[in-house]
Amino acid sequence: MAGMSERPERWSQASVYPDMWADPDDDPRNSDGVSPDGELATLADFLSGYRMTLRMKCEGLDAEQLARRSVPPSTMSLLGLVRHLAEDERDWRNWISEGEPLPKLYGRRDADFDEAVADQAQVDAAFADLEREQTATDAALARHPDLGERLGKDAIAVRELLVHRIEEYARHCGHADLLRECVDGRVGQ
């Protein structure tokens, strides 16, 4: 295993295409059949795929590797991304709420990244936080199936929020690609 200043050798688990994360037959993001019908189902499918990609990019790493800031001078780490997206899920619920906002999960601004440390209890908590916050945001939005409905104090459209969620996960999955490759050399989509 390479240290932070060493460059790990690139590798892939895939044998069919060397630049893929996993062989197409083994990739859980691949499904048989046609894509979903309808705008809402399509948006949910893309969101699900990006959420799965983030988890896949974190699989097989220990707490130190997940917390490693492998692309200096950035403060990003895979663990930080998990914490950040849990925080985002909570923030998105605040956007559509008329009530008092939920408090930040990790305290001060950027604590999601800055305080992501190599501790297995923190890793476990971050993944639990992410799952809980995703479930809560999904449930809140499920009560509003009309994509044109405007919610919250800023009257954000449900469609806009769903697209923003996809964009945020997609952008951070790109970061996860680079972070993971710098941690242990694993490449792939």
UniProtKB/TrEMBL annotation:
Organism annotation: Streptomyces buecherae
Pfam families, sorted: MST
Coiled coil: none
Protein name: DUF664 domain-containing protein
Annotated spans, Disordered: 1-37
InterPro entries named among the record's database cross-references: DinB/YfiT-like, MST-like
Sequence ranges of Basic and acidic residues compositional bias: 1-10
Domain of life: Bacteria
